[in-house]
């Protein structure tokens, strides 16, 4: 703390991202990155524009990418918002749509950035407990609120809420914005974007960091009613006119256009997940049903922190949250078949 700080800065509790180790030999199953690279067409498109044009600012509206996203999902361009990763999109969502003086609702076990944004934007929240099976109970969200947000599939559980249940949530909260954070939807769920034309209170966020393997490029998006998008644009244009650089616009557009590569790499991750779940269950783990590119697992006889430390010694890193209710779980990102086998071997005979 310093006398130069704006006073509220000392009250912030910043988000702590998963470790990005300097040791390159480690097998990283800790931050839900995609084990396969981005589309070769995305790489080629970015290489092709690495030239003197970088002296020029990018298009502040990223129209090329907006058009590609709109075409992909069958929506209009004014229903699409873009940001520097979905974290930035979410930051603008909290600022533009959740500051109503009533508590924001989200699950007690969900993306740990949500309470951080509440702290940054001075938003009161009510963390709603998942049920005993770690599932979202839609009925629990039918109470006065200033907005609702949840990841679907949820993080770090990986559990999917069926689209009918999402629709129920929208119907029972017609006066609140309901944000469905679909960072992991492409690994086993059906997007709610198809509902945006019927529910003006629905906003869906997605990222290119996971299923399109571009975490390093930082591109995220939101789709919803033009009125919601306009609020986000107003905040964005009061903050940073150019959140997406020239490479990001071109690379992300090419990634969206390469549907074949996207579908085949998602399927490889899904197939590896099925294999890994069976291997861990054979070792006695309880694994929550996952529709994501990670699994959430606990062992009835072995302490999770101990297992994470043991794996690290074997060169494999996974994520462990020192948090109530989930302190005995490990969150394990799905790697290549070789990475997953190293994890299974690293656990040894339990
Ligand atoms: N939402 C959820 C649920 C996430 O797990 C993540 C990844 N940490 C994000 C959003 C943000 O991803 P990005 O900023 O890379 O788009």
Summary tags:
single chain, alpha/beta, Aspartate Aminotransferase, domain 1, Aspartate Aminotransferase, domain 2, 2 domains, five-stranded mixed β-sheet, three-stranded antiparallel β-sheet, 10 helices, binds 4'-deoxy-4'-aminopyridoxal-5'-phosphate
Average pLDDT level: 97
- Name of the CATH architecture of the largest domain: 3-Layer(aba) Sandwich
Largest sheet: 5 strands, mixed
Bound molecules: 4'-deoxy-4'-aminopyridoxal-5'-phosphate
Helix-strand topology string: EHHEHEHEEHEEEHHHEEHEEH
Number of strands: 12
**Gap between N and C termini, in Å?**
46 Å
Q: Tell me the domain tally.
A: 2
Compile the SSE list and pairings.
Blueprint: E1 27-29, H1 40-48, H2 63-73, E2 80-83, H3 85-97, E3 104-107, H4 113-121, E4 125-128, E5 148-151, H5 163-172, E6 178-181, E7 202-207, E8 220-224, H6 226-236, H7 246-257, H8 259-282, E9 286-287, E10 294-298, H9 304-313, E11 316-318, E12 329-333, H10 337-347
Parallel strand pairs: 1-11, 3-4, 5-6, 6-7
Antiparallel strand pairs: 2-8, 7-8, 9-10, 10-12
Helix pairs in contact: 1-7, 2-7, 3-4, 3-6, 8-10
This protein binds 4'-deoxy-4'-aminopyridoxal-5'-phosphate (PMP).
Concise account of the structure shown:
With 350 residues, this protein is α/β, with parallel strands linked by helices.
